[in-house]
Amino acid sequence: METMEIYAVTKLSDLLKTLSLHGWDIVGTANLSTDCELQDKPVVRADEYSLVKPTILVMGNEGYGVRHEILKTCSKLISIPPGRQLHSHIDSLNVSVVTGILLYALMRGKVTS
Fold first, then answer.
1. SS3 for 15?
2. Euclidean distance between CA atoms 26 and 76, whole angstroms
3. How far apart are CA 17 and CA 70, in angstroms?
4. What are the pLDDT digits (tens) for 25-40?
5. How many CA atoms lie within 13 A of 92 on its CB side?
6. How are beta strands 43-45 and 76-79 bridged, if at all?
7. What is the pLDDT of residues 70-106, one digit of tens each?
8. DSSP assignment, residue 65?
């Protein structure tokens, strides 16, 4: 069984920068339909990402996604490959649903690698 520690920090961007300097992979989530301006970051499909070093998965809020200040600290972005179009009035999934899908995909890749 794997466990993780939980911390509270005053400034998340400072923590992410420090962890990045210590070899952690900082991966942000991207909604490809709305995050088109993030072209300076590579976007990896969740089913193609491999956990090769300690990784922080940064989840955004449901209304605005990941803040730009935090996105700057990410080395890459991860997305869920679309299986089908969402209803025309829905542009994203609930953050808890996305978290579950991404964690499943990341751990599945870890087990099969």
1. helix
2. 7
3. 9
4. 999 988 765 555 555 8
5. 20
6. parallel
7. 999 999 999 887 766 666 666 667 889 889 989 988 8
8. B
